[in-house]
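Action item from last meeting closed. Structure (450 res):
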């Protein structure tokens, strides 16, 4: 082996040992519960912040959090999921500030377009153009009643932007800014918000699989399937997918708009996240493999103390039960040679026929003909010898039963016949003409013969 090959082998071994040591350290840190840390609700009360203000402070990095106890840890509540906690020294540091609590509330204040324009002393149109071209990033958004997206910006970052870029707040905007603002489809606010959210998710965990799931949550499932070929790894990333923000709307239409803003749509952004996901997967695979359905831990055989002791007076090397197979020594897997369920092994027994089917003894010299005929069994008809109904009697057997004819149901007319027409007595006219009635009326008025 040459010197160059030896050097490469040594470097590869050192790199592998460093990766394994880092993975072990991370696994140990995951299960460790922080000492002196409080829950987020208790920390918000001690810092005199509302729940939404506390979440915004965590997203902006103003309040530092640490991983909570892992599920199953001694100091974890039964059935509780791993949640972020706030160290006690972090709370004391924020409370020791001279401007507490007003200064902390001002740092976590988020403003819209109108308040932001007033804070920068510019018009709303100029503020919107600066926001669309990516000069400052939003920290949150909501959908108003007109289904329009309203972006919120940190007031502290806007004040810092006014101090660092006064040239953009007065006079004419630069040419490149005007060219970008003139493009209708150009809007950097969703992309900047996704980048800020991804930074918050990556800072919240050291687990490489959780970090990879955070990157995968910004991509469409079709892009994730192209990067992650293994279906078990995709399922593992889906289980570790971070929960959506708590302020996401609940109505169907606003929720659909918010979900669309949480996924990358720009080609450059999609390519960047795909490369980041591929690198994060390499780091996660080096740490540990994704769980698979067939990766069950081997089942160990029971210790000798739990096995059945042999019966007193029996040979220890004989079978534990007279009719059962001995149990295998290991339970590592099913043995194809052993059928399931196990058959019973017992002593063979003599087959004894019933008395009615036993063969009759041969007639002896002392046996009378009546006794021999009585002791002989009557031959039963075989299934193939079925008597014919028209053949009459078969031996001494009874005639074949002929079924009685089935009586036919009597026809009942549901509709009674139509009644006959009423017959009138002879000589009575059924109908008289109009002329006859006119003549009778004339005779009644003028008299007969008129």
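Sequence:
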């Amino acid at each position: 082996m040459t010197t160059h090959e030896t050097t490469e082998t040594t470097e590869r071994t050192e790199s592998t040992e460093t990766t394994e040591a880092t993975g072990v350290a991370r696994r140990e840190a995951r299960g460790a519960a922080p000492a002196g840390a409080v829950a987020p609700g208790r920390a918000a009360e001690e810092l005199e912040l509302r729940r939404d203000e506390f979440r915004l402070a965590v997203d902006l990095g103003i309040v530092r959090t640490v991983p909570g106890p892992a599920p199953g840890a001694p100091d974890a509540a039964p059935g509780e999921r791993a949640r972020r906690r706030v160290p006690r020294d972090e709370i004391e540091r924020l409370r020791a500030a001279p401007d507490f609590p007003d200064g902390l509330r001002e740092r976590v204040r988020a403003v819209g377009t109108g308040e932001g324009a007033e804070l920068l002393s510019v018009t709303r149109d100029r503020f919107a153009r600066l926001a669309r071209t990516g000069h400052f990033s939003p920290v949150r958004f909501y959908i108003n009643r007109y289904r329009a997206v309203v972006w919120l910006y940190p007031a502290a970052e806007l004040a810092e932007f006014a101090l660092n870029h006064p040239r953009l707040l007065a006079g004419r905007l630069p040419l490149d800014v005007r060219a970008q603002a003139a493009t209708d489809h150009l809007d950097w606010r969703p992309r900047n918000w996704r980048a800020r959210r991804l930074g918050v998710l990556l800072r919240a965990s050291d687990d490489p699989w959780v970090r990879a799931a955070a990157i995968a949550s910004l991509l469409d499932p079709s892009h994730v399937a192209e990067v992650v070929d293994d279906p078990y790894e995709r399922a593992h990333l889906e289980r570790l997918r971070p929960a959506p923000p708590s302020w996401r709307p609940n109505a169907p239409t606003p929720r659909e708009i918010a979900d669309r803003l949480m996924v990358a749509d720009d080609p450059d952004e999609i390519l960047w996240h795909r490369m980041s996901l591929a690198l994060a997967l390499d780091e996660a695979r080096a740490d540990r493999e994704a769980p698979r359905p067939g990766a069950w831990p081997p089942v160990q055989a029971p210790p000798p103390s739990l096995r059945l002791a042999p019966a007193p007076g029996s040979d220890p090397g004989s079978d534990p039960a007279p009719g059962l197979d001995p149990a295998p020594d290991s339970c590592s897997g099913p043995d194809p040679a052993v059928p399931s369920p196990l058959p019973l092994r017992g002593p063979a027994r003599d087959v004894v026929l019933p008395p009615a089917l036993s063969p009759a003894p041969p007639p002896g010299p002392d046996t009378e003909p009546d006794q021999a005929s009585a002791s002989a069994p009557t031959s039963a008809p075989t299934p193939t010898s079925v008597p014919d109904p028209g053949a009459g009697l078969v031996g001494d057997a009874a005639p074949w039963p002929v079924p009685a004819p089935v009586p036919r149901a009597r026809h009942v007319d549901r509709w009674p016949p139509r009644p006959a027409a009423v017959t009138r007595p002879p000589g009575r006219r059924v109908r008289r003409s109009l002329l006859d009635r006119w003549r009778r009326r004339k005779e009644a008025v003028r008299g007969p013969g008129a």
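Note appended to the action item: The chain has 17 helices and six strands.
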